[in-house]
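About this split. The held-out portion is used to measure sequence recovery: a designer receives only the structure tokens and must propose an amino acid at every position. Recovery is the fraction of positions where the proposal matches the reference. Here is one held-out target exactly as it appears in the evaluation file.
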């Protein structure tokens, strides 16, 4: 039986629509999972029922996490979607209680850090000096900077690589790492590019976008495949 993966939806405020970039679902399918896009606005009991039928969860990219969740004023965030923050907070509570695997990509990586008590740089160009390109133009399957994998981290044990060349599509990043997380990879300017939880079986976050590049390199597919394998 293929694992069923709950995929967090994207939101378009201008069109008042819920939607999904196909690459997320295609990557899950390529790794032999079944993607199911979650709806917004479900009550807690219905959300629990959805969590029960899923074997793992993908926190996708998208609009900025509300800085109220890490107890800071909004200084330089882009659009915020309260519906999404609420959905993912409840989802995390239920998924963690059931010890089901979670993979966060980009915003999802940042949300995992916020959920466990960390905070974010609200806007990289405003908050830090860097020469690393963290927000590339099309095409998105082309790498634009290097990350260094931390020795003996789960990512190191999976990939057996010291460095990766990755794509990058974000203007926010982890600032203070949550106490229960540990870094697995960093960019040349020190920004954290991958994390995992110290205790749970599989809660991983990656700042780059493996769903765009898994067809062109082996490591992005291995990351997605590891997530799906943990859902079996």
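Reference sequence for scoring:
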């Amino acid at each position: 039986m293929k694992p069923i993966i709950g995929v967090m939806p994207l939101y378009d405020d201008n069109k008042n629509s819920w939607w999904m970039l196909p690459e997320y679902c295609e990557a899950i399918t390529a790794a032999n999972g079944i993607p199911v896009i979650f709806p917004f606005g479900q009550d807690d009991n219905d959300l629990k029922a959805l969590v029960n039928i899923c074997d793992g969860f993908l926190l996708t990219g998208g609009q900025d996490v509300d800085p109220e969740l890490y107890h800071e004023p909004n200084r330089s965030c882009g659009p915020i979607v309260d519906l999404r923050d609420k959905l993912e907070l409840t989802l995390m509570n239920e998924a963690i209680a059931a010890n089901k695997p979670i993979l966060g990509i980009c915003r999802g990586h940042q949300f995992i850090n916020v959920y466990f008590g960390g905070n974010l740089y609200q806007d990289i160009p405003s908050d830090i000096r860097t020469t690393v390109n963290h927000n590339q133009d099309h095409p998105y399957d082309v790498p634009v900077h290097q990350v260094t994998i931390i020795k003996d981290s789960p990512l190191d044990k999976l990939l057996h690589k010291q460095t990766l060349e990755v794509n990058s599509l974000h203007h926010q990043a982890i600032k203070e790492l949550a106490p229960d997380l540990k870094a697995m990879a960093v960019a040349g300017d020190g920004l954290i590019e991958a994390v995992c939880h110290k205790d749970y079986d599989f809660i991983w976050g990656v700042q780059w976008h493996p769903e765009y590049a898994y067809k062109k390199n082996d490591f992005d597919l291995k990351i997605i495949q590891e997530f799906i394998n943990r859902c079996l």
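Annotator remark: Residues 4-230 form a domain with the Rossmann fold fold (CATH 3.40.50.880).
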